Amino acid sequence: MFAQLLHPDVIIGILATGVRLATPFLLAALGEMFAQRSGVYNLGVEGVMMMGAFSGFWVTLTTGSPWLGVLAALLIGAVMGLLMAFISVTLQAEQGISGIGLYMFGWGLAGFLFRLLVGYVTSVDGFHDIPLPGLSRIPVLGTVFFDHNWMVYFSYLLIPITWYILFKTTWGLKVRAVGVTPEAADTLGVSVARIRYTCVIIGSMLAGMAGAFLTLGHTNMYADNITAGRGFIAVALVYFGRWTPLGIAGGALLFSTVDALQLWIQVLGIDIPYEFPVMAPYVLTIIVLALVSGRIWQPAALGRPFDREG
Amino acid sequence: MRIVFEKRQSISRKAQVLVPVVSLLLSLVLGAILLALSKANPWETYVAMAKGAFGSWRNFSETLVKAIPLMLTGLGISIAFRMQFWNIGAEGQLVWGGVAAAGVALFWADRIPAGLLLPASLLAGIIAGGLWAGIPATLKAWIGVDETLTTLMLNYVAILYAEHLYYGPWRDPHGYGFPGTAQLPPAAWLPRLGNTRAHLGLLFAIIAAALLWFIFKRTRWGFELTIIGENKTAARYLGIDIGRNIVLALLLSGALSGLAGACEVTGVSHRLQQGLAIGYGYTAIIVAWMAQLDPIAILFVSILMAALMVGGDQVQMMMGLPAAVGLVLQGLILFPLLAGSLFTEYKLKIIRGREKATTGGQV
User: Could you give the C-alpha distances from B252 to A159, B156, B222, B276, in angstroms and in order?
Assistant: First the structure.
């Protein structure tokens, strides 16, 4: 019954969907990478994504401009990032639990606002695909890689950009220093709090954008549970990618391909209970975490608040 | 002038009581702003919520119905949190408890004497919940896998598996396509209190709270778990087997959440169906934190959080506001609560000019 999956058109379809669906993982996980590199474990990505998905959708619905929608998602992400940074950096609260608080708050608020402001299922005119001239005509590869909307291209461009920022700029060096030895960085005159605030806010903005991709670049509609745990998986991808952009990109593609596979299994009506393919990414996350844990380097100050002596 | 935090000599009792109260008030104020922005009258909304939750015996019993699973999962979570094992997986453990209890009641009814069907169903739920929590515990104890993510992922797996069962093989053949199993045999129903929907699970929760109080205050094992949470190095130095204790504590933690699920199925819905996983396991995190992991306080805080859930449903029916308002308020409580834990251990000191703090707090 899986023979249908081996049809060339289907394989190309799965790969193209996989490349596209890597976008929310890439945006959210590359953002979370900055937060974690600076020493803050932001588990609230899922809640920020949910609010990004809703605000992007709602602003597009009311103004007709998906660009304003993305802008709204970025702003909401920044505000929620500021909140997370205030609680975890300034007030030094337990970060795992703060993140769950941010998740519940974002989740509840998105559902509340959707019922209050929209209340019915409707679709918006999101971003359209932009086939890259020339490249999109290459057989197979063109469809798989070069026929997507701008958010997809942008998320792939972020891989080299974040790599450059993290490893080749002074600011990136400061971020890495703050995440490993905040005491030493502080002695050298680096403001640990400012770096951590900046990183958490950038990460959260990208998470908001990842949410907006789901409503404006993928389904063109909003539904409860539209993020479906992708924000949590993005946090896991940072571990999987060992805090490097390239590693994260590999993980994002692995997960998005599994995601695409389960979508296609449902679309093709292959006769297995739909819950099992849907389960696959979550099970894969656990397996992956088990495989990479223990033996890996991680930012030494991850999850540890920093306070100069009074 | 600068403001610094100074470590207190001992944890402040006053702050311990004040912080949860102030957190609740602050969340209500923030919630009022949100309601006002939504063009709803905050005062009327809160009055409607309070009436909905406590206005009559009937309403209060509905609040208890929602409080019982919060009590049991909150108690379960508190065990794990004491060891600083962040078990976010109570939701999935609860779902497994419900699945196992329904499975036994539905399919073993002819093999188990009627008098034992209910205890067997509850026991199955307890075991299933415990084992489900045992997975992340074992991964953490053996190879150090971060538990926040594994427990979260297992929630999704458990919920999807339960869906598979009641949409698929366990679906009631006479249910007119309704997604849910057949009704459990009455022998497996948990007795209810009077003519309300509140059930014997309340008694289980009270017993569990008393037991946990005893374990943590009076037994060596409880003391070991507390040491592991406070200082892993000290625990290792004292020869405490951290890995074994993590697994044991999590089996107990998951067992209580499993019991919560089993009680929901045998006491409230009488079948496995949609609506079992409505976020009790997440709200219970707030419950445990707000009660500062104190088992007796968890019972009372659960009633408060359940009131927000029931109150949210009420304002939806009466004022047309989304029920999610209760959820938003819950999320809003957690932030000041987390921030407030700083004030129980530290005190604010305002320093003028170049004066130096006498005892700087290293955090």
Answer: 44, 21, 12, 21
Three-state DSSP class for residue B361: coil
Supply the pLDDT for residue B362.
40
pLDDT score of B349: 64
The shortest CB-CB distance from A294 to any of B144, B285, B325 is to: B144
Task: Give B117→chain A minimum CA distance, Å.
Answer: 30
Number of structural domains (chain B) is 1
State which residues form the domain around B197: 69-297
Residues in chain A with CB shorter than 8 Å from the CB of B145 are: 286, 289-290, 293-294
Q: Does the residue B55 lie in any domain?
A: no
Residue A167 belongs to domain spanning: 3-117+155-292
Residues of chain B with pLDDT under 50: 355-363
CA distance A167 to A163: 6
- Report the residue from A100, A285, A310 with minimal CB separation from B282: A100
Strand partners, A147: A131
pLDDT score recorded for residue A296: 66
Whole-number pLDDT of residue B342: 67
Q: Which residues of chain B neighbour A278 with C-beta distances below 8 Å?
A: 160
Nearest-CA distance A19 → chain B (Å): 23
Q: Can you read off the two tokens belonging to residue A40?
A: 């803050």
Contact B328 A87 (CB under 8 A): no
How far is the C-alpha of B178 from the C-alpha of A183, rounded, in Å? 60
Give residue-wise pLDDT tens across range A2-13: 777 788 888 898
Point out the residue among A96, A279, A282 whose CB comes nearest to the CB of B148.
A96
Q: Which amino acid is at A169?
A: T
| Shortest alpha-carbon distance between residue B116 and chain A (Å) | 33
Average confidence (pLDDT) over A68-92: 95
